[in-house]
Amino acid sequence: MNIHEYQAKQVLREFGVPVARGIPAFTVAEAIKAAKELPGPVYVVKAQIHAGGRGKAGGVKVVKSIEDVEKEAQRMLGLTLVTKQTGPAGKEVRRLYVEDGSSIEKEFYLSALVDRETSKIAFVASTEGGMDIEQVAHDTPEKIVQIVVDPATGIMPHHGRALAQTLGLTGDLAKQAGKLIEQLYTAFVAKDMAMLEINPLVITKDQKLLCLDAKIGFDSNALYRHPDIVELRDLTEEDEKEIEASKFDLNYITLDGTIGCMVNGAGLAMATMDIIKLYGEAPANFLDVGGSATKERVAAAFKIITADKAVKGILVNIFGGIMKCDVIAEGVVAAVKDVGLKVPLVVRLEGTNVDKGKEIINNSGLDVISADDLDDAAKKIVDAVKKLKAA
Ligand code: ADP
Ligand code: MG
After folding, report:
1. Annotated binding residue at 322?
2. Going by C-beta distance under 8 Å and a sequence separation of 6 or more, which residues neighbour residue 259?
């Protein structure tokens, strides 16, 4: 789960992390009020969306008067911001953050994540902050340094020294770096973060380290331990289909292809997506209906898939182990009766109660293309979608 910059800064503040003063605003009037509460004379108006790259897209503006705060707030609220990270559809700005303007001497990059290879929390630091870190990683990978923390020791003074050295900091700034990395690590572990990114971390003109941007992603599996974090969830930033799926305990992720998939078991779902690709189309979603899905859950899943305008064909691929094929068939038939079917549907059933399942589909009067195995099913749905595209 992701949160907004202003919320991330609030979380970090609890751990003593140095961040600029700022106030969130949902309306232009609130933005003006926020600016009046800040010392000025430099303010920064920042669009709050769950994506970075706002600066280059006009979503972060440094201004020098309350009138300009008003102007920028007016311009940004309701705007659909398209940044490198939003995708071409962009994201609508519904919240702003009005922040104290800082005088920046230098910008750095600092992030932390769970490194799956070493099973440790790793910090990633670079002197090349503020810009496209992906570009830096590609062009000059030697400018990016990893500092790995062993969970057995936790954060140690040598991690702080490594960070200071990486960023070329000495004296008091090196001390600040040591304190900062400790605070960030503590916050990361305490709140079960999956990713924390400070870009830029800056040195201000008065020689203080300050986190000017903050992005946090939390481990969804640990959210039950953090009701305070769950409260920060902004559903308007999330995919509607994924929210709907989560209500039914479905493992659903939206993808950008054309073939809607309904599969049971994550492994079979992955294999199904692979074979669709192999035959030249792409999946519109990942969906694992689970081992113990009911007719209602199957119907809900089917409705989520059919509601997706990108879906040009549907492939139901079920191996009935614990799951019974007739339950799947009933769910599909019920959903189609409810919402109709406007795209080709290929069904491949195998396993427990397969004959009953096929019978239900065959007697339903639905226009279903049945398939014998996974290969056959993938070929049939890809062919059907290609035909539809050509027509
Ligand atoms: P994004 O990463 O989405 O572009 P940032 O929060 O990193 O957004 O802001 C972009 C740039 O704007 C920063 O690299 C920094 O130069 C400048 N900036 C952001 N916040 C402030 C601030 N409080 N004071 C001065 N400059 C800022
Ligand atoms: Mg940034």
Report:
1. yes
2. 276, 281, 282, 283, 284, 311, 312, 313, 314, 315, 381, 382, 385
